[in-house]
Amino acid sequence: NAGVTQTPKFQVLKTGQSMTLQCAQDMNHEYMSWYRQDPGMGLRLIHYSVGAGITDQGEVPNGYNVSRSTTEDFPLRLLSAAPSQTSVYFCASSYSRTAYNSPLHFGNGTRLTVT
Amino acid sequence: AQSVTQLDSQVPVFEEAPVELRCNYSSSVSVYLFWYVQYPNQGLQLLLKYLSGSTLVKGINGFEAEFNKSQTSFHLRKPSVHISDTAEYFCAVSLIIQGAQKLVFGQGTRLTINP
Q: What is the DSSP string of B22-64?
């Protein structure tokens, strides 16, 4: 049981480059989300999805795009990387968007550096 | 508005000593509270959760937390820590906003266990 899989684990980009962070889950979870983790700031929600074809913005969506064409996959796209996007990115999923007692399952993260 | 404050960014303790990691929240509505743990180079995992009922909640690895509504706190405790408890701990509040679950995380507390 793989759970939530994120690729790549590490990435270095130059300012202005674009890239896609991949996230896949094999638990048939309805809800998927992306967080960024920065020192002293905890985790902040970037975008989330409550099902295939449905996405919405979180706290810090600027500079990022998402799509949800299948239940399993939820890629995060950086359109034009900036040094402020240097961070550790986590994908997380849960089985229901409305079940408040549904814990989030996290991937192991992608460490992104933008120079 | 909803926020979570973890009062200590770092907590060093000796092995087999008790520990308390503090968390306060602000909310005008009923809340669901969580503690997550992040071991080095890994994603977050659920430690315990409070939904309703008994204010003392027991989690994995011998941790417990007490919900105190009057003090708006949800402190995490363990009577005797081990080296393996070295990790970062995040308090979080769950809200249902526009039909979707959103977790608001605290800034994190890094627990370091000294032999």
A: -EEEE-SS--EEEEEEE-TTS-EEEEEEE-SS-SEEE-GGG-E
